[in-house]
Design a protein that fits this description.
Elements (H helix, E strand, L loop, with lengths): L1 H19 L13 E12 L4 E14 L2 E10 L6 H4 L5 E14 L3 E10 L1 E2 L7 E2 L1 E2 L4 E2 L2 E10 L2 E10 L9 E9 L5 E11 L8 E12 L2 E12 H6 L9 E12 L2 E11 L38 E12 L4 E11 L6 H5 L8 E15 L2 E12 L4 E13 L4 E14 L5 E13 L3 E15 L2 E16 L3 E10 L2 E5 L2 E5 L2 E11 L1
Antiparallel strand pairs: 1-2, 1-30, 2-3, 3-4, 4-5, 5-10, 6-7, 8-9, 10-11, 11-12, 12-13, 13-14, 14-15, 15-16, 16-17, 17-18, 18-19, 19-20, 20-21, 21-22, 22-23, 23-24, 24-25, 25-26, 26-27, 27-30, 28-29
Length: 513
């Protein structure tokens, strides 16, 4: 009950801000160097009677060479899914705190950080410590980090521990990264990281990579090659005959030629997952080579990244005909590894190569005049994890009545075939949104799923919700949703979170000062 009272209080406070604050951005000024951000989410499912309250409050302060900050988290209660709440079911605490000092000048200097921190090396092949609340990922490290630069050389060294699925920090991660950025046509870097288990009888796991970023003419490249080592696997599986127990490679090429833009990516991740000893923390998240869409049905059947058993590529071509017309097409394929791979040899498998994920996407955009534009999209994908094949055409129109008022209409249709049972069904989504720039928007989304489990019987399910959005000056974004929403996956960068079916009310508020 107190959570509802708290939410109501926040709504009252927000209403007072709307009534009494002026349209100018300087309605309230914090002391110099102080920053504040609050992110609140509340939902109540009327069918399951499940209530979720999540709140993150960040306070940062900078003075001279010093900076510090804290993040207070309150989950009362959290999402019931253990993969999301990670032990923070009913939880209130300062979960993130740091202090930093910057010494030096533009050409050379050192930044020292103690406490919690995030770090990304390269494209995440070795280490990607980050937070993304949309998929409830937060693998921050607590420890010490030193960052130094000397002209064109940059060095980062760190030692820290991440929280596991029970919010307990056990393993210790050490990492160092050195990069050179002094040449316009070439950048290079080397990374080494090692995970030390709490149990000293277990061997550490280490990853080492070399990356190059050459640029020639209208061509930009990125290459990173990495190896994985573990003495236990080397001794018990390979009988000390091989010192490498896994490998990873990622390559990217971009070319710009007149109205054309080409992008090609290739990957191979062979027993390359870099995890804590209990397997609940992933330190590395290499590029997934999966396209991310803004449309609901195209995201309905994604494939999660597997850092230990993937090889594949993705190609994308963009063509600009003129200022009014553009085209885009892409194709991606991800397969499992052969029997000769580290992954299969270590696990003593002898499995054939199979397709994990295949996708094709094409899109055409045309602006008819200053008041109307149209986007036609077509998607096709095959997914191993759900054994489905999906064909998805989409029509989107935007009507601009003036500089302020816009209506967006999206029609999505998806034909799904289960490749095991041969069952076929259809999904349709209609989305209508009115936007009054820059402060207000309201949208209505309805989805209909049509199945035919028997020859003479048709089953239809309908989900529908209305969502309001309001922006208070430049400091607060409000969102209110009520209705029903189909279950589905939310995936970003190959990391997925399953969102169950929802019927109820959902409120979000983000404040930045």
């Amino acid at each position: 009950m107190y959570r509802i009272i708290l939410l109501s209080s926040l709504l009252i406070i927000t209403s007072n801000i709307i009534l009494f604050s002026q349209s100018e951005d300087d309605w309230f000024i914090l002391p110099d160097g102080l920053g504040f951000q609050n992110h609140l989410e509340y939902s109540f499912n009327v069918e399951s009677k499940k209530e979720i309250f999540e709140n993150w409050t960040n306070l940062d302060y900078m003075k001279g060479v010093f900076s510090a900050g804290i993040r207070f988290e309150a989950f009362q209660p959290n999402d019931p899914d253990p993969s999301i709440n990670r032990g923070k079911i009913r939880y209130s605490d300062i979960a993130y705190k740091y202090i930093s000092v910057d010494l030096g000048d533009f050409d050379k200097g050192v930044r020292l950080t103690a406490g919690n921190f995030y770090t990304l090396f390269g494209r995440g092949m070795i280490l990607k410590s980050y937070e993304d609340r949309n998929i409830r990922i937060d693998n921050n490290l607590i420890g010490f980090k030193a960052e130094a630069h000397f002209y064109d050389f940059y060095l980062t060294a760190l030692s820290g521990s991440a929280a596991n699925s029970q919010n307990i920090r056990k393993d210790v991660l050490h990492a160092i990264d050195l990069s050179y950025r002094g040449l316009n046509f070439l950048k290079a870097g080397i990374t080494h990281a090692a995970n030390l288990p709490e149990d000293e009888s277990l061997s550490k796991t280490s990853l080492t990579s070399l990356r190059l970023e050459p640029s020639i003419w209208n061509l930009d490249f990125y290459f990173e090659l990495a190896i994985k080592q573990n003495n236990d696997i080397e001794k018990n599986v390979f009988e000390d005959k091989e010192s490498i127990v896994g490998k990873g490679f990622y390559g990217n090429a971009n070319m710009y030629l007149g109205p054309f833009a080409f992008t090609g990516e290739y990957k191979i991740y062979d027993n390359f997952a870099f995890t804590s000893n209990d397997g609940t923390i992933f330190y590395n998240t290499p590029p997934s080579l999966r396209k991310e869409y803004t449309y609901q049905l195209l995201n309905r059947h994604p494939s999660p990244l597997d850092q230990s058993n993937e090889q594949g590529y993705q190609i994308e071509i963009n063509y600009t005909l003129d200022e009014e017309t553009t085209f885009q097409t892409s194709y991606g394929l991800t397969q499992t590894l052969p029997a000769s791979s580290y992954f299969q040899r270590i696990n003593r498998f002898n499995l054939p190569i199979v397709t994990q994920f295949k996708e094709f996407f094409a899109q055409a955009y045309h602006s008819w005049n200053e008041n109307l534009n149209t986007t036609l999209s077509f998607g096709y994908n095959e997914e191993l994890s759900s054994n489905t094949k999906n064909i998805t055409p989409i029509l989107e129109n935007k009507f601009y009545f003036d500089d302020i008022n816009t209506i967006k209409l999206i029609i999505e249709h998806q034909h799904t075939t289960n490749r095991i049972t041969s069952e076929k069904y259809y999904s349709d989504v209609l989305s209508i949104e009115y936007l009054r720039s820059p402060s207000f928007n309201v949208g209505w989304v309805t989805e209909v799923q049509t199945k035919k489990p028997e020859t003479d019987r048709i089953v239809r399910k309908v989900w529908s919700f209305v969502q309001f959005g309001y922006k208070i000056s430049s400091h607060t974004d409000l969102s209110l949703l009520f209705g029903s929403r189909q279950a589905g996956n939310i995936c970003i960068g190959g990391v997925c979170r399953f969102e169950p079916e929802f019927r109820g009310i959902e409120f979000k508020m983000l404040t930045r000062l």
